[in-house]
Amino acid sequence: MNRRYRKTVIAGNWKMNKTAPEAREFVEKLRPAAAKAKWCETVLCVPFTDIQTCVKAAKSARIFIGAQNVHEAKSGAFTGEISAEMLDVLGAKYVIIGHSERRQYFSETDDTINAKVRAALGAGMHPILCVGESRVQRDLSVQEDFVRMQVKSDLSGLTPSEVRKVVIAYEPIWAIGTGQTASADDAQEICRMIRETIRKMHGARCARAVSILYGGSMNEKNASELLSKPDIDGGLIGGASLDVKKFSAIIDAANQ
Ligand code: PGA
Questions:
Q1: Structural domains of the chain, with CATH
Q2: What is the pTM of this model?
Q3: CA dihedral in degrees (57, 35, 63, 122; nearest 10)?
Q4: Which residue of 4, 48, 56, 95 lies most exposed, with the fewest beta carbons within 10 A?
């Protein structure tokens, strides 16, 4: 973490879990941990159907609500999709874009992801852009090249002031939901490379202002070590964000 130049963010990704009543109860229970976290922004990325309930429940708490996906178009004939303006009007401040599950199960490409990032920024939201290599890519030692390509493509055409509003989450696919967390050194190495890529695209001031998170089996036990690394500014947390005690403990760790 480096709080002098950028914010620390702990974001939960609930995926397809929790009904609206369950979500309301969770937010109530999360309030104390979020209230103590003066140095860290707490975000919950919830199913679309929970957004309104969570925004209401998080009122006057230091908890920001986000979505997990957005459509790139402003409006139109896209049955079943949700636009950035619709999310903004509900009070969502963040939106996860390009999660590996969206890339894998819903065939999202870097071109689509780039369009979604632009749409979210256009509506005044903060995209949480996910990048990360597969197991095969890591075994072939091409993770740096692959993630660099994702960062360049997904942020293509943005101005430096737009890039500063993007939160980047490095999530190695082999670490997601598997319990196989990347070592803090390996995670730091890729997060450092991501910052270097942004520096080459937009200069040092922009690069040092961007929050870069780690995601992939981050939990209350390994959070402190990961967060002690200079280029890891927080976490995107799946499984452990469903348990209010575990998620609160991660927020505490990020607030140290
Ligand atoms: P995990 O998920 O923490 O359960 O590995 C992270 C994510 O998918 O964002």
A1: 8-254 (3.20.20.70)
A2: 0.97
A3: 140
A4: 4
